Give the backbone structure.
Amino acid sequence: MEFDQSMDPCTHCGACFSFCEWDSAVAEGLNPGPEICRDCQTCYRICPRLPFDASALAASMFPSASPAAWGLSITAGTGQACPPESGVQDGGIASMLGRYLLRTRQVDAVLVTGRDAEWRPVSYWATDEAGVQAAAGSKYSTAPGLSVLQPGLDRFERVAVIALPCQSAALARFRQSRPQYGDKLAMVIGLFCSKTFVHGDQRTPGLSGFIRDRLNRPMAEIERFDIRRGRFIARAGETTAEWRIKELADLAWPICAACADLTAELADVSLGSVGSSEGKSSIIVRSERAQALVEAGVREGLLEIGPLENAEALEKLCNSKRHGAEQLPEEQRKLLGRAAIRGNWHRQRRRSA
Ligand SMILES: Cc1cc2nc3c(=O)[nH]c(=O)nc-3n(C[C@H](O)[C@H](O)[C@H](O)COP(=O)(O)OP(=O)(O)OC[C@H]3O[C@@H](n4cnc5c(N)ncnc54)[C@H](O)[C@@H]3O)c2cc1C
């Protein structure tokens, strides 16, 4: 049977995969028996797509924050890293915070997402500043970045993660269900995200097929992608091409339509372009530990932050994403929380074996 992507309820954040013994056995080339699913329920407890009370979780995580259209926040502003580094997406704050956490030894590793030559996202633990900087810039294809979470938690004393909203939600659920890891997972730096795209392969053209057809160029020649003011922009040498984001609707990962969270409302600090001018980032500080980090960055001259330039634009996009998720057809809504759970998949396989 052909795999019907529109029926895939999984956001592919990668979190459950990281803890699943069945999957790691398969990855090692073994053929696990049904007994290997320990029913540990980690997948169930951390899945960001299962219904859970996100507002209550945010309130327990961020007691000093106040409600805003972009979720609970202590402050929201527009900023940039100083001096600006090349290769960053907007204000370069995500990379700067990651580097600073390593430099000051607040963490031993930062989970970042770099890319291969074809722009496929590749997530890894950066243990030095060069490793963080090498991952600068946004990759808009869907990536199960958290699939390396558990090995990192085993290997390092304290870590930070740069994460999309779905991944930030998985990490918040993880912190809640395993409080003993609270200090180890020292900082979640969230990125705004309206959607991710299917990358594309032999069977599904995806983003790489779109670029090949529309630009007549392979992905490997693209130097930079951007999403700004409702447009998707690709740059290669002297060429800049842009399309209305709606033209790429068919390439979007289907379950992203069910996500109501634009700004990573469960991350310690969130960064995005909307609300700020080019070369700068909107920054939302939610937790006290993120506030201390950002204040230290400003004090040391590594970060400049002023008032949020365009709160109205940010508010509009937050509301539009929430509204879009509420308007989903019943069928798609029911899909949520069904078979995305790895334990359920394995149990289903056991039954049909
Ligand atoms: C898939 C995606 C969709 C986005 N959609 C929007 C949007 O709709 N509106 C908006 O305002 N902003 C969006 N952003 C955020 C924006 O593109 C920038 O990431 C953000 O402004 C931070 O910029 P920066 O210069 O501080 O980041 P940089 O300093 O350049 O660092 C970027 C960081 O992003 C991480 N990263 C890159 N790709 C991924 C990925 N696929 N998954 C997880 N981490 C990744 C890297 O690890 C890197 O550390 C999106 C980002 C991504 C990855």
